[in-house]
Amino acid sequence: MNDTTEQYDAIIIGAGFGGLYALHHLRDNMGLNVRAFDGAGGVGGTWWYNRYPGARVDAPSSPFYAYTFSQELVDEWEWKETQTPQAAVLAYLQHFAERTDLLKDIQFETWVSDARYNEASQRWTISTDKGEHASTQFLVCAVGALFVANMPDYPGINDFTGECYHTGRWPHEEVSFAGKRVGVIGTGSSGIQSIPEIAKQAEHVTVFQRTPQYSLPARNRPLSKEELKSYREDWENLRASMRHRGGWPFSTQRRRATDYTPEQRHAIYEELWEQGGIHLSINSFTGVLTDKALNEEVGEFVRGKIREIVQDPGTAAKLMPNYYFGTKRLILDNGYFETYNRDNVSLVDLREDPIEAFTASSIKAKHGEHPIDMLVLATGFDAVSGSMLNLNPQGRDGVTLQQKWADRFDNYLGTTIAGFPNLFMIHGPGAPGVFFTMPLGGELTTAWISECIRHVREAGLGAMEAQPEAEASWDEEINAIANGTLYPLADSWYMGANIPGKPRQFLGHLRGSQYFDRLNEVAEQGYEGFKFEAASG
Ligand code: N01
């Protein structure tokens, strides 16, 4: 692309799971003229950046954390472990991009620095950091739910002169921890996955923990050829189960806790803990995420496991989570709590010993100074809304998204925004995102978006736009679901609570299967909640 204004039917921003599939579908199945842009040097999105040691899919993965639409793709890709490591996910996405010949239509190392809607032409114009411009009728934002890094602003943090890495921006070159004193801030999925790996090499690891977490054993193991074969043979059914069972093909137990004695329930928790993965959460009893007493029982079971694993009672006490089980993202680990039994690992509880300042070579906490050579920030992301706000498209009447979303992330169906015609989001606020399998969620969302595009084009229309009243009722609809659970009680990134000053709002749709039914229903009812404009000519 040069600096003349190239014309496209659709522009896609982002070349992760969502963006790659959108490019494939809109170009190859819909026959549109499409271009994709990504600031990274290659495909992968989240998986391009999150390459810290120990990074793995933090959900039941192989072969379900992958595209589901093509039996051929399922048959030809050899997943090796039950919990897929980052490098394998990235290799898979590269393979997908090559086999579908996507790379020629993606411009890498190019940031979309500006996106504006022109009401007269009913088109979007994007500009890039390379000084290029392009015009498109439809703008598809697949900008990533977990992309904008959350950087803590402790006094003096910029004075620290040692190596410093954020897990969400990990370098491509190998990072050596050997002989180093490493400080890790943050104990979400990224911290909990990376700390055991860093501790294997480092001279000393000091973990700075703000909130102790529930983490379950991943029980990662090789995926046998027989398992993979049986999944492939039954793929059509498994895919249908995923679509209708919240993203995963596993049948969830519908047993009622009150039908069992406390001893029987405990035995069930033990069994599910041994199975590992998310089974304790999804397969114990109905109501774990809605019933406070039941939730507390499961939480106490996990706390008991932490007490059993961690030998030093003082350290174990600091690791006790005290929020409702599962209301922050559940973490799957490979030996996280065991890592605290190593001589070279120590834990600082920031609730009683907060960080006061950084120096060139240390972190000064209230009760002591910790010399470090390297700082690892596992401090997460301005999740879900952050990357759309970063893009900051300018919609109707010159209103930017930052203005529109100053107090609340209003949207309709998690895919569209009033005032931003012909713009679609994949995994935006209001969509299931991480509450469903993201690759399949991206496929289903893209299928719906492509039908919207088809509708506009075939009817000779110019623009499609969500209406503010539809946004308001959507907000009520998804909040009613969230408010029926314990999720809103936690200070989680789901609630925007990890970012100082961010509006507190539940950012997802908790019932993925119901959500995709709802999208179809809206389409079948003639796109209720949308306004269409005749083509301007
Ligand atoms: O980020 P997080 P993450 N001072 O926000 C702490 C997905 N994921 O990168 O809990 C001190 O969960 C913060 O403390 P608190 C997955 O969905 C996927 O770990 O807010 N501490 C928390 O402990 C996951 O949920 C995969 O009190 C500060 C930590 O930093 C999501 O990404 C792998 C702080 C951040 O935890 C995000 O995970 C990894 C401060 N100023 C992640 N600010 C795969 O599937 C924040 N913290 C591969």
Can you characterise this structure?
There is one protein chain. 33% of the residues lie in helices and 17% in strands. The chain has three domains: 297 residues, FAD/NAD(P)-binding domain, CATH 3.50.50; 117 residues, FAD/NAD(P)-binding domain (3-Layer(bba) Sandwich), CATH 3.50.50; 74 residues, no CATH class. The mean pLDDT is 96. It contains 17 helices and 19 strands. The longest helix is centred in the last third of the chain and has 21 residues. It is of the alpha/beta class. The structure holds 3-acetylpyridine adenine dinucleotide. The site of 3-acetylpyridine adenine dinucleotide has 28 residues, from helix 5.
Helix coverage percent of residues? Answer: 25-40%
What would you report as the Rg, rounded to the nearest angstrom? 24 Å
Structural class: alpha/beta
- Pick out the low-confidence regions: none
What amount of the residues lies in strands? 15-25%
CATH topology of the largest domain: FAD/NAD(P)-binding domain
Write out the CATH superfamily name of the largest domain.
Answer: FAD/NAD(P)-binding domain
User: Shape from CA axes?
Assistant: globular
- Specify the number of helices: 17
User: How far apart, in Å, are the first and last alpha carbons?
Assistant: 26 Å
Strand elements, count: 19
Reported CATH architecture of the largest domain: 3-Layer(bba) Sandwich
User: Which small-molecule species are bound to the chains here?
Assistant: 3-acetylpyridine adenine dinucleotide
**Largest β-sheet summary:** 7 strands, mixed
CATH class of the largest domain: Alpha Beta
- Tally of individual domains: 3
